[in-house]
Amino acid sequence: MDAKDNATNHRETRYMDDNSDIDDDHNQVALELAFSRMKESPEDLIWEHRKALLPDAIVSLSSEDQTLITEIYFENKTATEIAHRDGVSISTVTRHANKAIRMLQKYYSEFGNK
Question: What span, in angstroms and rounded, lies between the C-alpha atoms of 70 and 87?
Fold first, then answer.
């Protein structure tokens, strides 16, 4: 081995040593996460997974259904308020909301269990 090879090996070894702290930190975080997850029930883990998919699920709806679901479930508007504002019957709002919920359920049945 000549001096050039020796210098290269020294740099590679030093680089590996410098990264070992990062790898140790990463492994420690991964272990802590794994142990914390062991305390959670399977239902909690499923819920966390499905909650993470919610933005994608809502985007999969038409813009009208996105607005309706957002107003009802995130802005706490009632079907009566929406119906009066839009000049439609309460049953029309309810029917559209139920359709949107079925679409979300379909989305989750396709993507939520992976």
Answer: 19
Instruction: Provide the whole-model pTM.
Output: 0.55
Please state, in angstroms and rounded to a whole number, the distance separating the CA atoms of residues 72 and 11.
61
Same domain, 10 and 33: yes
d(CA 87, CA 96): 14
Block residue for tokens 């989305």: 107
Tens-place pLDDT, residues 15-65: 444 445 555 666 666 666 655 555 556 666 666 767 777 888 888 899 999
Which two three-digit tokens encode residue 60?
Answer: 């999969």
Which helix (H) or strand (E) element contains residue 98? Answer: helix 90-111
Rounded distance between C-alpha atoms, residue 83 and residue 67, angstroms? 13
b/e sequence 68-94, b meaning 16+ C-beta within 10 Å: bbebbeeeeeebeebbeeeeeeeeebe
Please indicate, yes or no, whether residues 55 and 13 belong to a single structural domain of this protein: no
